[in-house]
Design goal:
This protein is α/β, with parallel strands linked by helices. It has 2 domains: 145 residues, Rhodanese-like domain (Oxidized Rhodanese, domain 1, 3-Layer(aba) Sandwich); 116 residues, Oxidized Rhodanese, domain 1, CATH 3.40.250. Helix content is 28%, strand content 13%. The strands form 3 sheets. The chain has a 5-stranded parallel sheet. A 4-stranded parallel sheet has the order 7-6-10-11, covered by helices on one side. Helix 4 packs across helix 9. It is globular.
Length: 275
C-alpha cells in the first residue's frame, strides 16, 4: 500500500462513511494558526488534529520538543472523531508535508493499517478548485484499539546503543539542513552538530512543490543507503523526519524507524557525544 494519496483519488471518496479526512495544518511559532485556518475552510468532513495539542505530548526534561502524545488521550481523540481501526485515514497539511506525515507515522505506530498523506496538501486541493467547507464535523463516537507497531519506533536507548556499538546493519539518517547537521549554525537547539555516525538527507529533497517525488526519484535520493539495513530517521524534534520516513517506504525500504525525540532529545542528556 502506498502512503500517498492524490487529490484525484480522494475527491470521489468524500461521501464515503469509511473514510476520515484529517486536517493537520500548523505553523511553528504561531500555534493557533492551523485551527484558525481549519475554522475558515477545510476539505468537507475533515476533522482537526493539532501538532502540539494532539500529535505531541507535554515537553519535559527529556523526550524532545515534540514528544509522543499520551496514547490514552490520543485514543480518546480518535474515538471522538468516529475513527475505528478499519477507517481509511487521509491526512493533509498546508502543503508542507511534514505535519501530515507526522500524523501518518503516528497512526502507523499505533498499528493503523490504512493511513495516507494527501499529496500536495490543502494548497493543491484548493488550487484544483475542489470542494471546501466551513462547517465543523460531528461523528458518532467509536471504540479504537491500539496495537503498537514497535517496528517503526526507535527509542532513545536504541539510538544510544547505536552510537556506542556503531553496528553495520543500521543507518542513522539526519533529516535537517546541512548547516545544522554540520554544526555551522543552530537556530533552535542549545547545541550544534549531529548524532555521531549519522548521514545527512534533507527532508525537503523528497518533495517537489509540496508533492512527494516519484518512486524512481526517491530511490535515487537514497541510492547510497543499503535497502537491506535498518534505517533510523531523526530531525530536530521528530516532525520533519516524517516525510523522509514516508519517502523511504515509498522507495522500497522495508525497515524504517523514527527516533521521535530526535536531536532535541539527544542533547537533553549532557554526556551524549556530538559530531
Amino acid at each position: 500500500m502506498s502512503y500517498i494519496m492524490g487529490k484525484e483519488e480522494l475527491l470521489p471518496l468524500l461521501t464515503s462513511n469509511d473514510i476520515r479526512i484529517c486536517d493537520c495544518r500548523f505553523r511553528l511559532g504561531t500555534p493557533d494558526a492551523g485551527k484558525s485556518e481549519y475554522d475558515q475552510d477545510h476539505i468537507p468532513g475533515a476533522v482537526y488534529f493539532d501538532l502540539e495539542k494532539d500529535l505531541s505530548g507535554i515537553v519535559g526534561e527529556h523526550g524532545g520538543r515534540h514528544p509522543l502524545p499520551d496514547l490514552t488521550t490520543f485514543k480518546g481523540k480518535l474515538e471522538a472523531y468516529g475513527i475505528t481501526n478499519d477507517t481509511v485515514l487521509v491526512a493533509y497539511d498546508g502543503g508542507e508535508g511534514s505535519y501530515a506525515s507526522r500524523f501518518v507515522w503516528l497512526l502507523s505506530y499505533l498499528g493503523h493499517r490504512n493511513v495516507q498523506v494527501l499529496d500536495g496538501g490543502y494548497a493543491a486541493w484548493k488550487d484544483a478548485g475542489y470542494p471546501i467547507d466551513t462547517a465543523g464535523a460531528d461523528y458518532p463516537a467509536t471504540d479504537y484499539h491500539i496495537e503498537l507497531n514497535e517496528s517503526v519506533f526507535a527509542s532513545y536507548e536504541k539510538v544510544k546503543e547505536y552510537t556506542l556499538k556503531n553496528p553495520d546493519d543500521i543507518v542513522l539518517v539526519d533529516s535537517r539542513e546541512s548547516k545544522r547537521y554540520q554544526g555551522i549554525e543552530e537556530p533552535i537547539d542549545k547545541k550544534a552538530g549531529h548524532i555521531p555516525g549519522a548521514v545527512n538527507k534533507l527532508w525537503t529533497k523528497v518533495l517537489d512543490n509540496g508533492h512527494f517525488k516519484k518512486k524512481e526519484e526517491l530511490q535515487e535520493n537514497f541510492s547510497d543507503i543499503d535497502r537491506d539495513k535498518e534505517i533510523i530517521v531523526y530531525c530536530g524534534s521528530g516532525v520533519t523526519a516524517s516525510p523522509n520516513y514516508i519517502a523511504l517506504k515509498e522507495a522500497g525500504f522495508k525497515h524504517v524507524l523514527i527516533y521521535i525525540g530526535s536531536y532535541s532529545d539527544w542533547i537533553s542528556y549532557d554526556d551524549n557525544p556530538i559530531e
